[in-house]
Write a structure and sequence with these properties.
Layout lengths: L2 H29 L32 E4 L12 E7 L4 E4 L14 E5 L14 E6 L4 E10 L5 E13 L16 E8 L12 E2 L10 E8 L4 E10 L5 E15 L1 E4 L3 E6 L5 E10 L4 E6 L8 E2 L3 E2 L3 E8 L6 E12 L7 E10 L13
Parallel strand pairs: 14-21
Antiparallel strand pairs: 1-2, 3-6, 4-5, 5-12, 6-11, 7-10, 7-12, 8-9, 8-11, 13-15, 15-19, 16-18, 16-20, 17-19, 20-21
C-alpha cells in the first residue's frame, strides 16, 4: 500500500468516526429538542432570607483531593480521588452507569474556577466550584449535610451556570445551536440522607442556565435533625465543553414552631384542693407570633399566663381544683402560629383526675 492510499483510507476512516459521533449527537439532540435554554441574569439578593447555616457557602478556601471512604471507587483508583478537587465542606457524587459507550456517564473532573475567566464564572469571592466532562456525558454534582431542626421549613438557594458547546467559540460561550443540553437543579433531602437518587430528595425544576449565573431555589420541611442539600447537573450530549459552575449557596431556617409536651395530665385528692400549674414550652423562629386558646365549652377552664406572644415562651397552664367534685375533667389547649407552619395549630389535651383518695407509697432511701 502506497502512502497516498494509506492517507486516503485514514481520511475515510476518520470521516466515518466523525459521522458516527455526529449521528449519536444528533439522535440525542432529537430526543431532547423540546428543551429550550433558559438564560436568567444574576440577581443581587437571594430568595432565602435569614441566617445561612451552610459551611463554606461561597466555595472559598484551599481545594484539596477528595478522600473517599474505603474501598473507594474505580473512577478514582481507590480512596484518594485526584479528579475531585473539592471546596472544603462539600462532597462530590456522580453516576457511573450505564457505560455502554466510552462517552457515557463518566466521572466529572472537579476543580476551582477563578475570577479572571471569561465570561465571569465566579459570582462572588475568589472561587466557585467548577466541574466538567470533555466529549462525554455526565450526571453528578455535590452535597453537604447540615444539622437541622425537625419540623423546620428550610430554604436552599444556589447560583449556577454552565458552558456547553461542541466547539470552542470566541468568548468561550455556549453555542445555542449545538450544545450538550446541560441541565442544572438543586435539591434537599429532609431526612438527611446522602443518596442523591433517593426518592426522599425534593428537587427544584431543572433548566439550562448558560453563561450567566441564575438562582436555583427549593424549600423543604426537615424530618430529622440533619438535612442534606444537593447541586445536580446532567449533560445529555457528549460535546467538547460540558462545564458546570456553582457559587453562593444559602440555606436558611424559614419558619419553625414547636410545642411541648404533647399532653397535660394531673391528679388531685378531692379532699385536698390544690392549684396545679403545668408548663408548655413554645419555640419558634423570629418574626412569628403565637396564640393560645382554651375550649370554653369544656368542663374546666384553666387560666393561662399569657394568651399570645411574639417570642418563644414558657406558657403556664393553671387549674384550681377547689370547687371540683370527684371525676375526670378535660379540655383542649390550642396553640396556633402566624404565619402558619406545617404541623400547626397544635392541640394539647388537658386532663385532670379528681379522686377520693390518693395513695402514695414512699420508698426508703438507702445510703451506702
Amino acid at each position: 500500500m502506497n502512502r497516498v492510499t494509506a492517507v486516503s483510507l485514514a481520511f475515510i476512516f476518520a470521516a466515518i468516526i466523525v459521522s458516527g459521533l455526529v449521528f449519536v449527537a444528533q439522535s440525542a439532540q432529537a430526543e431532547t429538542s423540546r428543551i429550550i435554554p433558559n438564560l436568567i441574569a444574576a440577581e443581587n439578593e437571594t430568595s432565602c432570607s435569614g441566617d445561612n447555616v451552610l459551611a463554606n457557602p461561597s466555595f472559598e478556601g484551599e481545594y484539596s483531593t477528595y478522600q473517599l471512604a474505603a474501598p473507594g471507587h474505580p473512577d478514582c483508583g481507590g480512596t484518594n480521588c485526584p479528579r475531585a478537587q473539592m471546596a472544603p465542606e462539600w462532597h462530590p457524587f456522580w453516576r457511573d452507569n450505564p457505560r455502554d459507550e466510552n462517552w457515557m456517564n463518566i466521572m466529572p473532573e472537579y476543580k476551582p474556577s477563578l475570577p479572571y475567566e471569561t465570561p465571569p464564572r465566579v459570582r462572588s469571592g475568589e472561587k466557585s466550584q467548577h466541574y466538567f466532562s470533555f466529549w462525554t456525558t455526565h450526571e453528578g454534582g455535590m452535597y453537604q449535610q447540615v444539622t437541622a431542626v425537625p419540623g423546620g421549613q428550610y430554604c436552599f438557594s444556589l447560583w449556577g451556570q454552565a458552558w456547553s458547546s461542541r466547539t470552542t467559540l470566541p468568548g468561550y460561550v455556549s453555542d445555542p445551536n449545538d450544545h450538550g443540553f446541560l441541565n442544572q437543579r438543586v435539591g434537599i433531602d429532609p431526612t438527611g440522607g446522602t443518596d442523591w437518587q433517593s426518592p426522599n430528595v425534593v428537587w427544584s425544576e431543572m433548566r439550562m442556565q448558560y453563561d450567566e449565573f441564575g438562582e436555583f431555589v427549593i424549600s423543604a420541611t426537615a424530618q430529622a435533625d440533619t438535612i442534606t442539600v444537593f447541586a445536580w447537573s446532567q449533560a445529555n450530549i457528549p460535546v467538547k465543553h460540558n462545564d458546570v459552575y456553582w457559587d453562593d449557596a444559602t440555606l436558611t431556617l424559614q419558619q419553625y414552631a414547636a410545642v411541648s409536651p404533647a399532653n397535660i395530665i394531673s391528679m388531685t385528692d378531692v379532699d385536698v384542693p390544690e392549684i396545679i400549674t403545668s408548663t408548655v414550652g413554645i419555640s419558634m423562629t423570629g418574626g412569628m407570633t403565637w396564640t393560645a386558646v382554651l375550649d370554653p365549652s369544656d368542663a374546666i377552664t384553666p387560666t393561662l399566663s399569657a394568651p399570645f406572644g411574639s417570642q418563644p415562651a414558657d406558657l403556664l397552664v393553671t387549674v384550681d381544683s377547689s370547687s371540683l367534685l370527684t371525676g375526670t375533667y378535660q379540655t383542649t389547649l390550642t396553640i396556633s402560629f402566624d404565619p402558619a407552619v406545617p404541623g400547626t395549630p397544635v392541640q394539647i389535651p388537658v386532663t385532670l383526675y379528681v379522686v377520693e383518695e390518693i395513695n402514695r407509697v414512699y420508698l426508703p432511701t438507702i445510703q451506702r
